[in-house]
Sequence to fold (597 residues):
Amino acid sequence: MSDFKGVVVYCEIKGDKILPIAAEALGIGRKLADDLGQELAAVIIGGGIAAVAPQSVAQGADKVYVIDTPQLKEYQADAYLAALEKAVNQVKPAIVIMGQTDSGRELAPRLAFRLGAAATLDCVDLAIDADTRRLLQTKPVYGGNAQAVFTAAADPQIVTIRTKAMAALAPDPARKGEVVNLPVEIDAAVIKAKITERVVEEVAGIKLEDAQVVVSGGRGIGGADGFKQLDELARLLKGAVGASRPPCDNNWIADTAQIGLTGKIIAPEVYIAVAISGSSQHMSGCSGSKTIVAINKDKEANIFKQARFGVVGDWKKVLPAFIQKLKDLAAA
Amino acid sequence: MNIIVCVKQVIDPEAPPASFKIDAAANKAEMRGVPPVLDPYGEIAVEAALKLKEAGGGKVTVLSLGVNLLREVVKKTLAMGADELILLEDEAYAGGDAYATAAALAAAIQKKGDYNLVLCGREASDTNAGQTGPAIAEILGLPCVTLARRIEAKDDGLRVERVNSEGYDVVVTSLPAVVTVSNEIGQPRYPTIKGIMTAKKIEPLVWKPADIGIAPAEAGASGRKTALRKLFQPVHEGQCEIAAGDTPEEMAANLAVRLREAKVL
Ligand SMILES: Cc1cc2nc3c(=O)[nH]c(=O)nc-3n(C[C@H](O)[C@H](O)[C@H](O)COP(=O)(O)OP(=O)(O)OC[C@H]3O[C@@H](n4cnc5c(N)ncnc54)[C@H](O)[C@@H]3O)c2cc1C
Fold:
């Protein structure tokens, strides 16, 4: 175990920028590396990405390993996995951190099993155990009803982190770091499951992840028509419309609107939950919201345990009056 | 197409949160007074398998690992339309993590043989680990596609739509392969009376560690690569301010005023 040292963050990139979650991973990675008295390295993978490396340094990395080849311009899980495997075998880090993203959630467990190590996905807290110097990996279990703290026996200790659960450092462009090019050749034969097409279904308007106000509907909305009313409120508040899982499963709204453990994780200023019971799986996606407002006819609904403001009543009566009053107040 | 679906018996994720309790001494959670169920995403994976069988024929074998598996829970898959049920059931399998569980499932899949596709749910509702499918793929050296919302047999392989945060990716793979299934694929069917009657007559095969070539010391808790240090319930302080009023409309107006005052909106 002793030849594994330091912390590596896999920094996912989009276009010519590292993702916010990569900056969050570097933030916690910096802290863990300092606690261990070891180095924090970033790994970036792609095609034509040399300009991205300084961003990882500015966010806290001591060293950046760049795997830059036209073969890796587009994401292919099998090829990215091969590249990551190569990087980890070379760097031999004690800890590998990735984001719990579309790709992180498939790459992390596969990398772990390929290396004979273990992964813990969707961590909301990471710390070094003072006694053993092992990584304490805290993740929600039972749909968010509980949290578990795990440690891994073997190195590297691989984790993904939940979006917005950990803080990024303020970028410091003056920070110095070393950039190391890692030449990797990907044998095309490693791509056994090939992505042939990417289809974007994102609805028009403000993106859920970026919206300051999110108006979400649950099973109690009862149909697609109800979502039109939520849309009206969202537009008034310059926000976006989200949903719990049942409206997505019932095709009242696009699947990409799902908020929760297996949907999107968001942390807007205001989250308005309409006819949503507040299951732990749903709250996993919105409990980071600054203020939660609930409209539900059941005063015992779990959502009221996490909401700051609420109305107990039928949304069909509450919502139009609420929208009208907001308009009146804005006009006054 | 011959399909093996891995499913799990779990505490009911839809039970009221108040019935959820943690046994701190055992580091285990339970639902008081609510019986266990089939894991919802596992059930969705069974649905995906049945759809593929309907489209192209073949056989659906369900594989489940656990201790004290209730027959009415695991047999639900047969009642839905699966053909065969294999249980990895033994005290030795208890307390495993993703590693121990996937290793045993992979060994059982190899023993079973004669399969084209392995399906799993995207994650189990108890551990929320999301690792079993990818792990089996790595152990068996098979192609892996996660988060499927649509699976079609095509040119001796599969065309899978993989959910992502913006829409979906189309992924093409050869067989055999491992695919994990997400809810977007569609709601699992209800068992029919006929299905329930058929399920009654099918006896599950039970495989002990020795049957799949695993030493008891490699199974369950002894085969873990991770240790559970602590299990706890985060506390939420309920301090919700409920808007007052005689009618829903009045409450709504009061809420709007209050949110304005508090500078929330
Ligand atoms: C592993 C796993 C992952 C999951 N991931 C997610 C996830 O990512 N996101 C997610 O949302 N769910 C997820 N779920 C499902 C989750 O457990 C719940 O089933 C779901 O969140 C319930 O949605 P809901 O609150 O809209 O519906 P319900 O629980 O049915 O609640 C409907 C609410 O509407 C209220 N209501 C009804 N009519 C009215 C009315 N006229 N006016 C006012 N109120 C009304 C009711 O009082 C009730 O509280 C997951 C489940 C599992 C097992």
In short: The two ends of chain B are 55 Å apart (CA to CA). The CA atoms of residues 98 and 131 of chain B lie 6 Å apart. Chain B touches chain A through 86 residues (CB under 8 Å).
